[in-house]
Write a structure and sequence with these properties.
This protein has a domain of 145 residues. It is an alpha+beta fold and 630 residues long. The chain is built from 22 helices and 18 strands. The strands form nine sheets. A two-stranded antiparallel ribbon has the order 1-4. Strands 2-3 form a two-stranded antiparallel sheet. A two-stranded antiparallel ribbon has the order 5-7. The chain is globular and about 75 Å long.
Amino acid sequence: MKNIYIRSIFLFLGLLLSSSCSDYLDKESDTELTLDGVFESKTKTENWLAGCYSRIPDPTWGYARSLGWEILGDDMTPSERWRQYDWQVIPFILGDWSVGSQWSPGYWNNLPQRIRECNLLIQNIKPLPEQNLNEDEVRLMIAECRFLKAYYYSLLINTYGPIPFSPDEITPVNYNLSDLQVGQTPYDDIVAWINKELKEVETILPANYSDGRKFGRATSIMCKAVRARMLLFAASPLVNGNSEYANHVTKDGKALFNSTYDANKWKIAADASKDLILSAEAAGHKLYTETNAAGKIDPFLSCQNLHLVEASKGNGEVLFARVNVESKEYDRHTAPGGAGGAGGYGVTQSLVDAFFTANGLPITDSNSGYVENGFSSQDGYWPNGITKFNEVKSPGLVTLAGTYNMYCNREPRFYLAVNFDGAWYTDGDNAGKDKGRKLEFFNGKKDNNNTHDAPQNGYLARKRTDPTRNPTIGYFAPRHGILYRLGEAYLNYAEALNESDPGNPEILLYLNKIRTRAGVRTYTTGGTDVDNIHVNSDQESIRKIIRMERRVELCTEGIRYDDLRRWKLAETVLNGQFYGMNFNGKNADEFYKRTAYQTRVYRKSFYWFPIYLAEIEKNPNLIQAPFWDK
């Protein structure tokens, strides 16, 4: 081992330091070190471990810009003119995607490197009593690396499907090409290994840390969260009994996907989600809520601040977070141009339409009270309790007189997710005060200068943005990025339970926990009244409302695209024209028209990222992802 040299990347992460300092100090060392040199030092060992964490994705700006998961779905839309700034995911949604395309999330190349570094630590770390690195700490560091390996593998199979898989192997520095020319392992086999590994590791890791400086390091709850989401995907139609993949086999004829449906996978997924919920709640996690002056849940402040308040300040909903994210870029690109922002990262008309009305019904329901055309004659107030979230003019106000009716009488999450023309807007020093202005999205007005930095379909994203931001002076408050939260676990459990045990009362119980926090009426199989909405008890009816709730509650959080994929709906939903208001409209008559601004293309092959053609050419044992070679 003393003769094996590697290039070591040291990344001092905030999880190893105080989170009040610089959370992730990406410090790269050019020093060539022997492995002995690393693991003879506690400091270097800790830095090595920090480097193993460095590929945890950024769920804020990363899901948008770097990884593209939000843009590949149907919730978010960037200015198409940002292609000139190397937004290479934009051509993909328009169908310009091939095995030779150079952009990808970078998982294929980067995650195996981190997995290798985890294996090196596992094999070489040792107690250093004279440096206060004891056996218990070593045991925990090994468990952390085992978690990271399993997590990174879950990202790989979620992106590419079956992959080459040798979880404990360390490729030597002086490898032969033949050492790397291995084929893929079947998808279900890798899922089974990840599941088993995480179940073992969760018995070693703590549920949380008393030392705040360790926030972000692996916990047993993070293990359960990764398992639950992965098993939900594995139970879903894309990979559970998909006959279209029956002929997707290795060079020697071994099936890479199981094309026989297994109903028990839904039960396994439901059990994993329930286990996560019970364990998380036992560890002190709970849905984040804030109350109003009457002591009732304030849906506006609750749903807004669950994405802004950090775990150390009372946000018990966070199960897995990345300490350092590019929240500045997310806030800057969603801020309107008239306030100094880039002003081009918006939401689709499809998402606008997905939000419920104030009485909890979809806009397509004849009893919803939804009116699309025309304008309100008076200010609109939230009818179910006074609130004062940061961008309203006065307590309870949600829309100003003269607002297009499409945006009136909607549920709280709509106003927290969408910035629309005529919405009341404040930021910086005016946040939470009565000072502010209406957003102006007509062409040529304050927030639409008809350039690349303007809302191409008449909307900007508001959800997960910080109301105290002030782009004009360059102020953007840093915050953590949430990868998994308890609200998602409730919805995952409801979905898996409906598929495995339809009619179970816990389905609506957990679905309604989300709706109660959001300030909308809950569902019941009984009669409709002031607090409840009747829904038929059959599996398909419940499936429909679960999917609607996921769309609204989890929007902009990097989940929608995977939902469409695993439900096998991406080909239907992500093909065709996408709509918004008329970007070129200079007055109300021109602007307030549903206008197609983009034609999306989604082929059957797009469900999985392709393996780069160059990789296929180097390794004859690799099989290209389904339908990419057609």
